[in-house]
Amino acid sequence: MIVLLSPAKSLDLDTPLPTRKRSLPRLLEQSEQLVDVMRERSPDDLSALMGISADLGALNAQRFADWSLPFTPKNARPAALLFDGDVYQGMAARDRFGERDWTEAQKTVRILSGLYGLLRPLDLVQPYRLEMSTTVPTAKGRSLYDFWGDEITTLVDGDLAESPGADAVVNLASEEYAKAVRPGDLPGRFVAPRFLDADPSGRFRIVSFFAKRARGEMAAWMVLNRVRSVRALQDFEATGYRFDVGRSTPDQPTFVRDHA
Fold this sequence. Notes:
It contains eleven helices and eleven strands. Helix 2 (43-50) crosses helix 3 (54-66). The chain is of the alpha/beta class.
């Protein structure tokens, strides 16, 4: 079983690492090609392209300029400990995972990335910002989806064959990133859990902030409990969510949380 996550814009560059384990991204040659393309963009170009401020445009232009091989613990950090957005705060791997949990996560958790394609939690990455939906013309097409083509799906397929448990992908990534994977080319099921919160009137809806944290919570729960089947997802109850059979379908298990 493979769990898919999105990356995060917020990065943690300073907190001491809880593990010395590390690995290298498997698509670094392609990443280097993208960095070369991005280095041709000025800070103002990056600001316009990504819809970010001038300061962030300058920061990310410098990051692309500084990007260099080889990746080492001195110039890069494990992906799951670099990303620091809502999903990763919900996951809280820094505080929850022991060494065996990191080994499990390395087998089952994958992070989709505009720059790195597909990452394992302990893959070293250097700071960057490049969202999957960004329009980046390359020799392969006009978008990052064109650039990555079927490479991400092929890598997920290989990881599925080696991962423990049922042949299923549990998609906890956003729609933007999940579009980089082609479920029809994968064996088994492609399951996308959904998290709903009740508003004061009692109606259930997706609240982005809470849903992101819940995705991270579920990813951590799956690692810590060595979840091996889609059916076992129904047991997820972290932070007040409960499985709702009436709102669920086989490939979209739905979890609800009542208004506090």
